[in-house]
Automatic annotation (TrEMBL):
Family: Belongs to the sorting nexin family.
GO biological process, one term: endosomal transport
Location relative to the cell: Cytoplasmic vesicle membrane
Keyword Phosphoprotein carried by entry: no
UniProt GO cellular component terms: cytoplasmic vesicle membrane; plasma membrane
PANTHER family xrefs: SORTING NEXIN, SORTING NEXIN-9
Species this protein is from: Electrophorus electricus (Electric eel)
The protein's name: PX domain-containing protein
Amino acid sequence: IFPVFSKAPNPEVYLLSKHLPKQTDRLPIYMGEVGPVWLYPQSQLDCVVADPKKGSKMYGLKSYIEYQITPNSTNRPVNHRYKHFDWLYERLTEKFGCALPIPSLPDKQVTGRFEDEFIKMRMERLQAWMSRMCRHPVVSNSDVFQLFLTYKDEKDWKEGKRKAEKDETAGVMIFSYMDPEVPDLEPTEVEQRYETYSRFTRSMDDGVKDLHSVSHLHWKRCTGPLQKEYRHIGKALQNLSSVFNTSGYQGEATLTEALMTTGKIYEEIAEIVAGQPKKDLHYLMETNNEYKGLLGCFPDIIGVQKAAIEKVKDADRLVAMNKIAPQDKHNMAKNLSTMSYAFQAEMNHFHSNRIYDYNRVMQFYLQEQVKFYETIAEKLKQALSQYTNL
């Protein structure tokens, strides 16, 4: 009644499994202050994506950009093209996608791939993606991720790729490596927890999309209508100054000069307003976009977990029909508990990262906003100082 091994997210395959990997390969889950947590390394892995260089092959017919990635574990740089990042993403999704959110890479682009602005933006997004993967204790310690960061030469890279592509510990079978050092959960308790997580991830997805939409409109306003309004005010004040200058009245000069200076300052403010989103809103939107990608993974992960709950609920009927043995039913409940602990550990990882990321980016955003308004205030004070008290 149960299908043979498949890499598709079919929880039955894992639920009935009895195989346990070697102790060295296990992925322990501990009970921490916030609940189940992954085992975190003593020193945090990180890497720097830098130094993009244009390369070519097929006698120059095919061009590409290659990035240098330097992990802090070796301080030895390795080179990768975008298609290598894409390969890594596919391997990680295949291996961990049933249990962990693996966000998509920055989009591929057909035209303008070699323009400086695009290369800079892609490198920034690849850096953010790699940093997020480095921060995950399960992903960062996996063989395929370590291969990507530390391969020695072309031969080592190709051999590692072949091995990774044949990895059978993928899909739901990744749960067989997870080892919760905690008591088993009851299926009813498991189900309640999923409802809570499901509601939160859906609500956060809505909130993230709303902030993205509002931020996008604000950026357009700063570089469009708002910039034009400040320019128009500046031009109108300068025009008024020119009109006043034609009066022939002796005491005119101080006011006309003040109006002209104020008009020019408003034109300067127009450019400051238009340039500000790149300095602060950009980083808030990028963080928000990363979370949009992460949250997009959760429906599938929760779907696998809910399918497993339904299978376990059906175990009594299958035992009664002699389709599975009572011991199989016990194994299914135990394995469902492991899946639940893995998901709770992942949600706790997600929440701690979310709090850190949004706290950090909002601090940066507000610091830059304060500088922005202080700059405008200084400009307005400069304009105000041109006028005499009558």
